[in-house]
Amino acid sequence: MSRNKNDCVLIQGLVNVSQIAAVAGHSAEIPCNVSNPLADDEASLILWYRVDLANPIYTLDVRNVPINGARHFPASEMEDRIYFNVSVHPPVLIFDPVLTTDEADYKCRVDLKRSRTLILHIKLDVIEPPGEPIIMDEHGQHLHDVIGPYDEGSTLRFICEVDGGDPSPEVTWWRGSSLVDDSFNVTKQGFVRNDMILEEIQRGDWMAEYTCRASNTNATDPKEASLQLDMNRKNYFFHT
């Protein structure tokens, strides 16, 4: 995940709130700028808290050692998927993978040897990707790969439904790189649905590929499902 060095500004003794977005199932990084604002001071402890929990989820003990030789103490229930990387600037707490349940407010507390404690507050938003699109005909029959054959001149209706995703995904139909239909809605059952109607299919539609895409973030590729149209083409007779 990319981050901007200006996303988080650490001000001595003050609370500054920043916001980071991540995608569930991928890695996430939340930064803590532990640069010392006082030239004659240094950190002794760095603690990460999830603000709704009493105990720290990560402790970095820098007492009597350089920061690269510090002792790491992740919370036992998270030790297999979090790590505080102090080899980059600013240092980052890495979740790998990040879960939807990790969405919360966090704070990085830096205890200095001589100065007052520094605190940085960060909000982590976790995006839940949508499920795989399901393509159906108007009778609810699941469709994929090559379908048909349909008679040339027929009008066809294809339904694409997607379950899950937070925030709710956009569900669109494409033919190649061309957008065909972006008129999706949310059903009573909570599915996001897009009905595509192809009016009077022509010879140019033979073996055309249509793709339903579901996306709720630019951070990952959209989920996709595709089909191709087979066709019974009309025979044209010309009289001379």
From TrEMBL:
Pfam families: I-set. PROSITE patterns: IG_LIKE. InterPro entries: Ig-like_dom, Ig-like_dom_sf, Ig-like_fold, Ig_I-set, Ig_sub. Residues 25-119, 133-228 form the Ig-like domain. PANTHER family: OBSCURIN (PTHR23278:SF19), SIDESTEP PROTEIN (PTHR23278). This is Ig-like domain-containing protein. It comes from Araneus ventricosus. The lineage of its organism: Eukaryota, Metazoa, Ecdysozoa, Arthropoda, Chelicerata.
